[in-house]
Please model this.
Amino acid sequence: MAIKRKVLIRCAKDGMSDRPKETSFYVCPTEISAEKAAEAIRSHRGVENSNHYVRDVAMQEDACRIRTNPRIFARARRLALNILPANHENNIADARWCDALDIRRALQYGFK
Model:
């Protein structure tokens, strides 16, 4: 089964967005309806978008070159990511971008 979708990619340099199209292929051992396939794909994408994508893209975890105690730095990044939703930030990448532009904004966060 092939799924075609548009994705939103934001350039960190200038803040501009691009919407390229991508095709994803899924394999299922049994035949299922389109509605069930869409529900399964969306639920999987929900986990990917809410956790893995944020860690990979917003925090650039995959690009990290730390080889000594990488788990410590992964936990530090996770702690930093937990602060944003605790302060009602929905778009992590946008919040980090705004925080980088104004350090006073970042220093106003707190745990509630």
